[in-house]
Specification:
Alpha-D-Glucose-1,6-Bisphosphate, Chain A, domain 4; 8-stranded antiparallel sheet; 4 helices
Length: 188
């Protein structure tokens, strides 16, 4: 029997990332960093009511707003799609991210709630993919200082060097003001 059209679900995912909470937090709030991890363009204004827009390509962009931010501990933002996907308009679902220190690492606990049941598997797969990218080392593909250096959230200094070499047209580390910040890697 099919689920009623108004029924919603929650997708939860937990992963350990080999980086301190302040580094992981910055990957959710700094547009230059989030596009290193997911998406091709981002506009973020990390304050309650500020925009949270991540474009994955020319047709897929998630749009929401930041709801709560506890630096280096917790982030809550709304999420939905600009296109008419999954009957999920912008800001129609909620994503809560908890960052729990674990030595020099961070346990990331993500809960994506108010998802239409038909959208659950797509979002579960997406969060597993993107959070998994932060949890495991990956091999450099361009301009890394040493061949075979691991990249990902798991060693932010290597990541910053790798990304700077790949996308050197961006001013990394620029935090901007309360105005929305936007980043798009060169070549995207």
């Amino acid at each position: 029997m099919a689920a009623p059209p108004n029924e919603t679900s929650v997708v939860e995912h937990e992963v350990r990332i080999q980086a301190r909470p302040e580094i992981v937090f910055s990957y959710f709030t700094d547009p230059a960093k989030i596009v290193r991890w997911m998406g091709s363009e981002a506009t973020l204004d990390p304050r309650p009511g500020g925009v949270c827009r991540i474009a994955f390509d020319d047709e897929a962009a998630a749009l929401g707003a930041f709801v709560e931010l506890e630096p280096n501990r917790r982030i809550v933002f709304t999420w939905g799609w600009e296109a008419q996907w999954f009957q999920m308009p912008p800001q129609s679902t909620t994503v809560e991210v908890l960052l729990v220190p674990d030595g020099e690492a961070t346990i990331v606990r993500l809960a994506h709630s108010r998802l239409p049941v038909g959208a659950s598997e797509f979002h579960r797969t997406g969060w597993q993919h993107y959070l998994g990218r932060g949890a495991r080392p990956r091999r450099a593909r361009c301009g890394a200082p040493r061949r075979g250096s691991p990249v990902g959230l798991t060693g932010h200094l290597v990541v910053d060097t790798y990304i700077s070499n790949c996308y050197n047209s961006l001013a990394w580390g620029s935090r901007g003001s309360a105005a929305a910040m936007k980043a798009r890697p060169k070549g995207h």
